[in-house]
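User: Structure please.
Assistant: Input sequence and predicted structure:
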Amino acid sequence: MRFTLSSTALSSKLMALSRVINSKNSLPILSDFVFEVGGGALRLTASDSENMMNTTVELSESDGDGSFAIGSHYLLEAVKGFSEQPITFEVSREDGMAKIIYQNGQFSLPIENADEFPKAPAVGEGASTVTMAAGLLADNINRSLFATGDDQLRPVMNGLYFDLTQDCLTIVASDGCKLVRNRVLGVKGDGAASFILPKKPTTLLKNLLAKDGGDVTMRFDGHNAEITFDEGLLTCRLIEGRYPNYNSVIPRDNPNQLTADRAALLSALRRVQPFANSGNLIRFHMEYGTLQLDAEDYDFSRTATEKMACDYSGQPMSIGFKGSAFIEILGNLDCQDVVVQLADPSRAGVVVPSEQPEGQEVLMLLMPMLINE
C-alpha cells in the first residue's frame, strides 16, 4: 500500500491526536497512531482506552485501502520538523514495516496490526443530543475549566457538568470552593438530560475547537459521549454519579453590590496577594465608594494595603476571600466591569459581568474565608 499527503497537514493532525495518548499505557498498542486508508482519505486515530479521537486528512495519491498501527513518538518527532512538502508512505504488511519518503531522504518504522487496537466506547440507543456552535462551546470551556476539582473522593466534581433542560443548557464547574455557572439560552432540549465530561476530554476540546469552526454535536447516554466537530470525532467515557445541586449554594438575596473595573481590581489583587499568609487570605473592606484590599502574614512581618475607587451600594462590610481564587475568577471573565454581589461575610460572594455575553448568563461564585477583625 502506498499513499501521499501533505507533511504539514499530517503533522498538525498528529500533534492534536498526541494529546490523547498517555505517557504510560496498559496496552503497548495504545502508544500508537492507527492509520486507515480508504476513499482517497486517511483516517487517523489515537486512544488511551477511555478517550478515543479520530480525524481525517485528504490524500494526494493512494493506490489501495488498508490499515495499520505505528508508534507515535518517533513518527511525530520525525514529521513535525518538515517544511511543507509531499510525504509518501510505502507500507509492507509482509515485512511489517512502513517506509516514509520525503524530499531529501527516508526513514522506516515497524507497524502493527490495527485490529488489535481497542474499540471506541459505544453510545447506546436512545442517546440524548446537544448541538451548539464550536466557538460558543470553546468559550464556555475556557471560562469554566479552571474551577473543576481534583478530588479522588468526589470524582463527580472533577469534570464539567452539562445540564440540559427545556429552558437552556447549563454548563457548571466547581471544586467546592469556587463555582462557575454558564447558561446558554439558545440551546434547549426536549426534556431533562445531563452528563459529566471528564477533565481530559474537556481539555482536548478546549485545544481543538476553533472560534469559527462550525457546529459541535454531542451524543451521550449514562456512560459514554460521542462529540463530533469539524476536526474529527472524540469518543469518551463519562464520569458517573450525581452532581451536587449547584443552584442551592448560590445566595438569592444580595443587598450589598460592588461594581469595579475588572482589570484594575485584578491588578490590585496581584500586587497585594504575594503578602498574604499561607491560607492566601485577602480582606475586602467596602464602604462609601472605596474598596480596600488588605493582606498580612505576621509570621514573616509582611503586610500590604491598597485602595481603589468603586461603586458600592450597601452597608460597610469586611469579607475574606482566597486571593489566588479571586484572581482566577477575574482572569477568566472577559468584560470591562464586574459586579460582586454580597449578602454577609459568612455567605458566598457572587461575581457576574456587568454586561452578559449575548445569549448567555455567566455567574461565578467564591466561598468566603474567616477573618479576624
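The first helix runs from residue 7 to 18.
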